[in-house]
Amino acid sequence: MGLSKSIWANPTEFLRAQSPENPVLFFAPSAAQAVARRFIDGFPGLVTYAVKSNPGEEMIENLVAAGIKGFDCASPFEIDLIRRLAPDAVIHYNNPVRSRTEIALAVARNVKSYSVDSKSELAKLIEMVPVADTEISVRFKLPVSGAAYNFGAKFGATAEVAVELLSTVAAAGYIPSITFHPGTQCTDPAAWASYIREAAEIARKAGIKIARLNVGGGFPNHRAVGILPQLDATFETIGRVAREAFGDALPALICEPGRALCGDAFTLAARVKSVRDGVHVFLNDGIYGSLLELGQIGIIDRIEVLDPQGNHRTGAVHGWICFGPTCDSIDRLPGDVPFPSDITEGDYVIVHGMGSYSTVTNSRFNGFGDLHRATVLSLDV
Ligand SMILES: *Cc1c(COP(=O)(O)O)cnc(C)c1O
Question: Which tens digits make up the pLDDT trace of 111-135?
């Protein structure tokens, strides 16, 4: 595309100058650093970043610059990425199922914190991971609602099994800790409260004073107009309930947000390929591209539509059927998508809050999905 500059004032300036045919993901380093500082200042413990949500180097580097010192990695690729970009950072390997090859790699990379949710996986860790200064966190699950997507369906021991695992961890000489992940886009602070109370109960039943409690990710990003993520209320709830539930045995707290740290630092611009017979909007990005997650956890309604010169379309907003570019019928955004009545071929659809689970799920199905990147000072259009 022959970019003539590397940092743009805002997405509009870029769209006007470049008229991109491919979807573009705009990154605002200032937005990434601001939310990181909000977490560091507000969360009552160590803030780590769940790399899987957006492993872009620009994202990691800006988090490090803002003061993030820990990373939740789920694979050898992510471990190597963080060792390269942030050599002094701590790594928590919190994918509770690992092959022996993966465990060996983590040991070789000096990873000192692992999560576990089953006896068979704990036996592998005990066999392969040196005990010295090494933490094993028992991950448990609760049938709690409040999140947009339930992670307990795959990972997490029941409370009974967690008691047993915690005892085994301590008996083997590792630093015993507990972890959970309440789900993603969890807008109800009460979800953390239930988990923290249960964690205290598990530690009490096992008769073990845990070193740390990792309250997971799941903090929301800004997806709905007029509904701001309640980060401060969630931080307050976590600190207060942990003190109440653990009393004198209060562990150090850790969180590992992904979406909340990266989501609102990126804005997507997709182009309207066609408004087919006035009823179907076809975009150049969709479910097989960077919009996969919308099909799973729902539409982001922070949408603006610009004409090719960068002016806002101002027609009355109503719900449209909106398809992605591939030939597959499931390549449709969920429900009715709010677009103005004057949306037209060639326009740009701006979707805010697109930094999480977007670059990582982007496929090249049908030859689409060539996502371009640009850095901006501000994401306002
Ligand atoms: C995915 C994941 C996270 C991050 O979740 P977000 O909803 O993006 O904050 C944190 N911890 C674990 C164990 C995860 O699997």
Answer: 999 999 999 999 999 999 999 999 9
Write the burial class of residue 117 (CB in 10 Å: 0-12 exposed, 13-18 middle, 19+ buried): buried
- Domain parsing of the chain, residue ranges: 3-27+264-376, 30-262
| The CATH number, out of the four listed (3.40.640.10, 3.20.170.40, 3.20.20.10, 3.40.50.720), of the domain defined by the range 30-262 | 3.20.20.10
Ligand 1 touching residue 141 (CB < 6 A)? no
Ligand 1 pocket, residue 216 CB under 6 Å: yes
Question: Rounded to an integer, what distance in angstroms lies between the CA atom of residue 346 and that of residue 366?
Answer: 21
Q: Which atom of ligand 1 is nearest to the CA of 53?
A: 8
Top mutation candidate among 53, 97, 213, 266 for ligand 1, by most atoms within 8 Å of CB: 53
Residue pLDDT, tens place only, 330-347: 999 999 999 999 999 999
pTM of this prediction? 0.96
CA distance 64 to 284: 33
Q: Which fold has domain 3-27+264-376?
A: Lyase, Ornithine Decarboxylase; Chain A, domain 1 (2.40.37)
Cα 256 to ligand 1 centre (Å): 7
Whether 259 is in the pocket of ligand 1, judged by its Cβ within 6 Å, is yes
Label the pairing between strands 303-306 and 348-352.
antiparallel
